[in-house]
Amino acid sequence: MKLELTMFNTTAIAILILFLGSYVKSKIEILRKFCIPVPVVGGLIFTIFTLIGYTTNIFSIKFDFTLSDFFMLAFYTSIGFTASISLLKKGGIKTIKLLIVSSILVVLQNGIGVIICKILGINPLIGIATGSIPMTGGHGTSAVFAVPLENLGLSAANTITLAAATFGLVAGSLTGGPLGKYLVEKSIKNNKVNHNQKTNININEETENKLSAKGFEQAIFLLLLAMALGTIISTLLGKTGLTFPASVGGMLASAFIVNIKNFDRLYPIKHTEIHIFGEISLAIFLSMSMMKLKLWQIIDLAGPMLILLFAQVILIIIFIIFIAFPVMGKDYEAAVTCSGFCGYGLGAVPTGVANMDTLTEKYYPAPESFFIVPLVGSLFINIVNTFIITFFMNVV
Question: Would the pTM count as exceeding 0.85?
């Protein structure tokens, strides 16, 4: 039996998967502990359902993912509106340092993936698909870059990247806490702990505003205009002969708009409303991406993938101990920051924040870390990561 769904039916299934994921996550503590996203929880259950249909040959479902690109572009365009140069400056030198070490890690994640693939004699694109795309990028970036990777010849890209991203979430939780504890104890031995440290920096001052119906109208209008401009930019980038994901154009368009001097006076940029619409778009897009998972495609790659993924865990541990921690100052804040860095370097920012929460509950507050980790992990590194991944895809 073969079911064919319209784009509206497909979107409805994606939303039902979100409802299912939310319910299951609310009932299972370990899913909350590891900060597994709702679309991933529901999507994995749905994937098992489709796997049963495939293996038994009882049923198959043909989806229409026409709206998937819209939700993807809406999310990434919303990210660009957070790329304010003034906000980066407000974070100070530690923010810039964390962004630099995060960018170096992104290069290493892709580099080690490609090298291992060549040693194993498999497609080097698999190394990129298990590198910074799912690790630093997470599920959202994984779903976006699956399409250009498939266009380059990696047919199972969607399944590989999303499976790797799920592994990264768990690894980031399991690794970040113990690693952070080790670094904290190290900083205490070095007498580099300031129990009374305070900070006046507040990311909410520039990225939040009071919600209103008019604000949502203004936000969505501006977002749609930026998306349209982004498609023009993507078309121009495509003429270079290089491979760019559609998300690049949207991010560049909104980043350009937000950094125009006094633009907010001409037309208000409603950051809170844009963020909410972007998060809704991400949830639906990611749910749709999970619906595309075909686990039977990666059975033969299970061994090589495990080697690649554990190599990423070893890489970030060594990188943090010998590079990131010293660069960030070797003090208590540096230890907490590195714990958060491990979380989003392998999984996602919520994982990093959960790691930092665990440490600060045990030891002392770390206000700087709770500012710079979300600022870099949620905003700026996504933009840097996109261009570095694009570079690797075009040179491998």
Answer: no
